[in-house]
Each structure stands twice: as C-alpha cells, then as structure tokens.
Amino acid sequence: MSQTTVDTAVEGSTRNGEREHPPERQGAECPECSGSIRHDAEHGERTCTECGLVLDADAIDYGPEWLCLDDEEDRRRVGPPVSSIKHDRGLSTTIGWRDEDAYGNRVSERKRERLRRLRTWNERYSSKNAQERNLKQAFGEIERMASALGLPKPCRETAGVLYRRAVDEDLLPGRSIEAMATACLYAAARQHGTPRTLVAFESVSRVEKLPVQRAYRYLSSELGLRIEPADPIHYLPQYASALEVSDDAERLAREILEAAKAHDLHSGRSPAGLAAAAIYGAARLTNERVTQATVGEETGVSSVTVRNRYRELLDAYEESRDHR
C-alpha cells in the first residue's frame, strides 16, 4: 500500500473524531454471485449482501479507540497518557541508561560521554525548582513502597493526587517528605479498598509508624478526607495469600467475619486483628496447620490478639449457624 493511500485512509477514518472507513472500491462485486459488497465496521469484515460470502476479515480500524461525544472536544493525542504519579505528569523525555544503539551494539567512548552529559542536563531540566524536586522524591518513594506492598496503579495515582494537593495547600513545611508520602499512600490504599496496616507500611517506609500516624491525621484533617473505617474483609485476600491457606478456609473466614459484623463485634476493634483472627479460626475449622505465631508474623498482628479474638468470632459464627 502506498503512502498516499495510507494517509487518505487515516484522514477519512478520523474526521470529526468518528470511526469512519474508506469507501468501497467502485465496481466491487462478489466473485461468486456478482452481488454488491458491504463493509461491516463492527466486525471488520467485507461481505456480500446477496450470498453472505466473507471476502475480508479482521480489517484494520484506523479510527481512534475513543468516542467523541462533544463536537468541540479535541481528543487527539500522541504518546502515553499523563500520569499523576510523575512530577512532570509524564510529559518529559527520559534518556535510557544503556549505552547501546538501536541494534544493541555498544556505542563508542565519545558517544557514551555525550550521552552522560545529555542525561545530566536532562535530569537538571526535568526538575527545575524545589517544588518539582520535592514531587520527584516523594513520587519515587510512593512508587517504591507501593511496589513492595503490591498496591495497584490506581492506588498509586490517587496517592500522587493527594500529595500534589498537600503541596499546593502548603502542608509540607515542618514535616518530612517520606512521612507525608507514606501517609498519602496509606490513605489511597484505604480509599481503594486495598488497605494495609501501619505495621506493613512501617516495614517499607523510611520513617517509623508514629510520624506516619501524625502525618495521616494532619493530612486527613486539612484536606477533608472522608475515609470510612476499613472493612476487615478487605484484609482477607492478602492474609490468605501470605499464610497459603486454602480457598475453603478463606471463604469460611469471610463467613465468620460476616457473622461477627452481624453481632456488632467489629465496633471499636482493629480490622486487621479481626481478619487475622478469622483466618486462624477458619484454618482450625478446616484442619489446616496454621499456628498463632505464624499468623502474627505474617500479618503483623500480635498472637495475643489472635488468641483473644478468634474465640469470640467462632462463638458468633456458631450462634449465627444455630439461628439459621
């Protein structure tokens, strides 16, 4: 296909932001019955209107992957989408660290020196002032901690938005970047229903738990964050994965927590502690060898809490079964 043909096809397909397809060739007929040819845009096929013969399948769609619902909206774009977890929203250029060309061959010493200078100047230009350097350091910390805790990308993006709001409202003076970044990620994890305990955050953060608690309370108060108390059930998947219990045990632990909530046993108690106790109780009921000490090590909940809570949870579970 010539370049002129490709350009014409792309131009015809993206006019007014709609999915359009090149017109059929004049005089195109079905080779079987000489019927007219119809283009099925939904399935990417060219078929005969008379006998149903499929001439072409899996045609290339040159249109955009989005729908334009507003005539004044311009959604053309090139490159990756913007990101809230990057200090420059991902709009700058990144020079790779490999001293190789496009074919994987090592470049000469002269070109390596030139690449090093380019990286240095690119690094200086991408963070021109103190605020951008602040954001760059904080977002690096958020990415590192989120990766260690297995938090999804939407959670990281939300943490980036919260940190930007804190910077814009001048909430950082007198507080460490690491503590505020950890507090933002902790809040984002709770908002997305993927909570982690403060003990888990302390294990991956560069600050201790107390500064993170203070930063989170300050952040929540100043930004007006309305975060509901964590549901103990949200902790079950990560605990079940860490303890390698069966699906039956995880399902039973969910039922135990539902019974505990029905008896209002979750009020005023740690959600993480209830989830750990439910997992332990479910493992006992399914005859799986999980000790209280193992549960405490994997979940960060003390074995004393597990021992005291699981009996109450099992009593509530047995009572709920008796009333069925």
Automatic annotation (TrEMBL):
Keyword Transcription regulation attached: yes
SMART domains: CYCLIN
Basic and acidic residues bias (residue ranges): 16-27
Any Gene Ontology CC annotation: transcription preinitiation complex
Record's keyword annotation contains Transmembrane: no
Region (Disordered): 1-32
Name used for this protein in its record: Transcription initiation factor IIB
Originating species: Natrinema gari JCM 14663
Gene: tfb
